[in-house]
Amino acid sequence: MVQGADQPAGTGDVQTDFFKLLGEGGAIAQVVLVILLIFSLISWSVIFYKFWQFSRAERQTKTFLDVFRKSSKFSEVHAVCRTLTESPLTGLFQAGYGELNTQLRGPTTPEAKPSQVAVRPTLKSLDAVDRALLRATTAEMNRLENRVPFLATTASIAPFIGLFGTVWGIMDSFQRIGVAGSSSLGVVAPGIAHALIATAAGLFAAIPAVYFYNHFTNRVKYFSGEMDDFSLEFLNIAERNFT
Amino acid sequence: MREAISDILSERAQLTDGMSRMVVLSLAGHALLVASMLYAPAFWTTAAESKSTPMMISLGGAEGPDAGGMTTIAARPVQRVSEPEEKPARPAPPAEKPPEMVAPSAVIKPAPKPPAKPIEKPRESSSSQKPTSGAEIKSGAARAETTGAQVPFGGLTTGGGGTGGARVDVANFCCPSYLATVVSTIKRNWNQGQGVTGQNTVKFVVHRDGRIDGIEVEQSGGQLLDITSQRALQVTKQVTPLPREFMGDTLTIHLIFEYSR
Hints:
The complex is a heterodimer of chains A (243) and B (261).
Chain A (H helix, E strand, L loop, with lengths): L12 H12 L2 H44 L3 H8 L6 H16 L22 H20 L2 H33 L4 H58 L1
Helix pairs in contact in A: 2-6, 2-7, 4-5, 4-7, 5-7, 6-7
Chain B lengths: L3 H10 L5 H21 L2 H9 L115 E3 L7 H13 L9 E10 L4 E8 L3 H14 L13 E10 L2
Antiparallel strand pairs in B: 1-4, 2-3, 2-4
């Protein structure tokens, strides 16, 4: 009698079995899983952080360039800089402006107007300004690249850690086969299924890390180009007005 | 000696970053993922399964009243003996003509035959005494098994004796290899050379953890051999645990021990 559609029992069991499997493994397997979880946590933190940082940097760079190109006084631009701290160009500008200030008679703050007709203050060395900009560029690059290498580390290490867990688990299950004296599927399969979780976890941590590492390296490259562009622009303005 | 720019750069390097907030965000994301795997499994696993529509087979007839219902006999046509067909009556043959009168003729009658000798009936064989009738087929040690798996036992040392074996009570026992393992374990503890030829069958019960008990001689082969067989099992005490495929809690094995000189 097969009357009555019996709902296939144990649909939820698959999932609970999965989590039971997680708990059943040996100490090594659990340590591997915990390490992978930590890697995944940190790498996702880095991903979120970099997204946030880069999107802010991009927005503020746009605003900064708008202000910079519209205004006719460096002092005006310098005043705006305090609100746009995330943009790398702000750092460049502050360094260049500081160097200009010190050269054009130091702490008395000369009116460094781009279009000054009266007593024209002159720069002693344009190279020094260039060097200041270069220093700032390096510092800003460091700020942008900060923590991105962790993603590369995760991407390359996590699959290996997972593989280690799997190999260990399979060794363990083969040992169990030896003890049980039977090579039936019932003895072999659970051990191998459990062992494979480690590889899955490794890939789970590694795949986003690979993707976002490439993504962020690309964006850093874009910012680097923008900074080079800006420092050349700044040098040009300084040369035109102060020499 | 300190440059003005260094101050600016170091000031910028110390800007607050929101990393700690992002760690919390990442933690929350992972927790959410785990929770979604735990509590929302329905749409992950069942999607493929639920699409298949099962085919229902009712072995008890169609549903509903008076349609056969659950009783399997109700819908079946009743079998009964059919009425014998009436055959058309054969027309009666025409009546024979009465014999005509014939004149008697003088013929010598043959002499009557001597009465035939009664044929001697074979004597009923008595149950107590069998007539000697030469070689005949006797039931030997070989036995035809109809259920369970047979595993040869003692075959190596019998030297021309019959075949022994281990037999289980379960029909279609899943794992003949398990029986072979058990038999080889017992054989290690069995003192086979007793200087007497014979065989006996011993029944014992293997529990799920491999413990042996319930040792009983089923078919005796003399006191000495019985004790030897029982001792082999008692010394073994523990064999490989029952295979996972076997559903029962205990397995009863009938083992034939064969002794040869």
